[in-house]
Amino acid sequence: MKIIQVKTILTSPNQNYLFVKILTDSGIYGVGDASLNGREQTVADLIDTYLAPLLIGRDPEQIEDFWQFVYRGSYWRGGNIMMSALCGIDMALWDILGKSAGKPLYVLLGGKVRDKVLCYSHVLGKTQEEKIARAAEYVRVRGLKVIRLRAGLPAANGTFKVNGHQNGPKVEPWTPEDEIYNTIEYFIRIREAVGRDVGIIYDLHERFSPDQAVRIMRKLEEYDPFFIEDPVAPDCVDSLRYVREKTAVPIAFGELYKSRWECLPAITGRWVDFIRCDIIRIGGITEAKKVAALAETYDIKTAWHGPNDVSPITHAVNWHLNVSEYNFGIQEDGTTDSLIHQVVTGGPLYRDGYLTMEARPGIGCDVDEEMAARYPFHKAYLPVCRQEDGSLHSW
Ligand code: KDG
Ligand code: MG
């Protein structure tokens, strides 16, 4: 079997996505997700200009070799653009392998070790009151066992989607003291509303300094967070260690990591309880299985990043990893945006606090190119924050 064509598909069904489709001379093709929120076009250019020509004529089954060829062979290693591009290709190659073997991806990864995938969903709303009411409803009506909160969410105003912010990032004001106060108050109110049995995850979104994160987390200890996510930025590894040493709250970390080497200090130091990489950002399935194996060695669980700015293809890949990894912890479920399901078929379904998926050969998803063309791509930016004195703060 030989690769004969590589397509990139940019589309905006309410949110920007970049898909990769790899066609072979056998008629079998594979699909992958290379979406990088705010930089999709650049990833597509890298694939079209530099990587697709390297794939033509190659055996699609040599997945590991192609991964190493791109990662090490380009000399300039890694980075979000490169790893997202590599992921789109890596997923499509695993999809081809599964389809040609007639087996779902999880079988290629070693087979199922569990039947159900525990998941959590975001509680969204404009005000705290709205979010508290919704959290209680999610638990009562939708049967969610774990919910995820974030206090200051600029994205709630539509900045996350494709509407409006195409000429530059939206600027959101940010006052750390307000957010620290709101976070603690909000968490406590939600705990009171949903009771003791519901897991509560709180995403601090890499926004806080180590001492601010510790202040928040110490106050929350007695309210039993399921975990606190990304309390500090990933740039300085010692910040995470500082937070770890000063609080007893379970920590999940890693959606901004770009490789297993970036994860290494957090894993070998056991500074985290859950490793939370985004499969696209680390270069796909080939790298994810290595990160999961490293984490298992240190008794650390996985909680792969799964927001709705990655497509059902990535949610499906997460699911295949979740059912076949021994050290699965929990899965973020951002599978709900309905428009994307017109473009991508397949993917996991939510049922009573768990994700399920119909087993099909490969990843089990397909991209409808005609539907994708009906939602033309528009460049959009993620927001930024500025503090009261005008200085920039990461979003
Ligand atoms: O594009 C940015 C999002 O993927 C990110 O803000 C979502 O932090 C996130 C999460 O935990 O889902
Ligand atoms: Mg997050």
Structure overview:
Helix 5 (128-140) packs parallel to helix 6 and helix 7 runs parallel beside helix 8. The chain has helices at residues 40-55, 63-71, 80-101, 105-108, 128-140, 176-194, 210-220, 237-246, 260-268, 285-297, 312-324, 340-343, 369-374, and strands at 3-11, 17-24, 29-33, 117-122, 146-149, 171-173, 199-203, 227-229, 251-253, 274-275, 301-302, 331-332, 344-345, 349-351, 354-356, 366-367, 384-386, 392-393. The longest helix is centred in the N-terminal third of the chain and has 22 residues, at 80-101. The protein folds into two domains: 3-103, Enolase-like, domain 1 (2-Layer Sandwich); 107-363, Enolase-like C-terminal domain (TIM Barrel, Alpha-Beta Barrel). It is built from 13 helices and 18 strands. The protein is globular and about 60 Å long. Strand 14 (349-351) and strand 15 form a beta hairpin. The strands form four sheets. Strands 4, 5, 7, 8, 9, 10, 11, 12, 14 and 15 form a ten-stranded mixed beta sheet that branches. A three-stranded antiparallel beta sheet has the order 1-2-3. A three-stranded mixed beta sheet has the order 6-17-18, with no helix packed on it. It has 395 residues and is of the alpha/beta class. It binds 2-keto-3-deoxygluconate and magnesium ion. Residues 203, 205, 229-230, 255 line the site of magnesium ion.
